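Re: your question about ADP-heptose:LPS heptosyltransferase

S., sorry for the slow reply, the queue was backed up all week. Below is exactly what I fed in.
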Amino acid sequence: MALDLLVLRGLGLGDLLTAVPALRALRQAFPRHRITLAAPRALDALLPLTGAVDHLVDVSGPGPVPFARPDVAVNLHGRGPQSIDALRATEPGRLISFGTGPPWQDGVHEVRRWCGLLEWHGVPADPSDLTLGISERTGPAIVHPGAAYPARRWPPERFAEVAAALGDDVVVTGTAAEVPLAREVAELAGLPPERVLAGRTRMADLIDLVSTSRLVVCGDTGVAHLATAFCVPSVVLFGPVSPALWGPPPGWRHVALWAGRNGDPHGERPDPGLLRIEVSEVVDAAMEVTS
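Result:
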């Protein structure tokens, strides 16, 4: 009978993708365990691509986690106390977590943070092990203007100028809630309505779209990490949070634009630093990474 290893990461798309190296490290270190990921059900389509997860239980946020007595429980969600308490409640044989192991450190890139946690516990992890595939770059250029908070949303009229400069194969993506924003960008860019894919792509569709695209232009959001995962050239616009914490890895046709000032990532207005990024900078970077 296989032993169970439970991992908590009850967060979003980008959060899961930054945890892929840690998940793969756990698979290598515990090859005979059945690995269950506690994460939102919407991310299920990504799991086979990681090669690291056997099963998913639907959890959003730090818990509770509907699981009992895993051999090992790993907290890749945060530093607690809610996430730690949620995993303790499953009565694991061993708990790997900040708060019970190494101290939490600010100023660490998200990928390296979780790899470092595992290494402290004797599990080797490679922060560069992010790839889910390599795009043939035969698909469209993607402009993704949305983000979870207004502080990370570059103005739609600027995204529209970029979209208009990228050619006639541009599509505009987003969630169902971002359909009005995507339509505004497309209209301002002179794109036909069928080029608006916001609200029409489930997770599996978004993966298929990004995995074949020639370019992604977006803010600091999950689609940026999906571009990294498929080695798609990308231009990512950062505002209140430094790319040193959440940005793409250096090289391989990824450009992170940042004005060099920190702010509130949950703010209700576009971050002043984000507004300092000009359309010409984004267009030039897009041409550079696709040349």
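The mean pLDDT is 96. The chain has two domains: 3-120, 141-290.

Happy to talk it through on Thursday.
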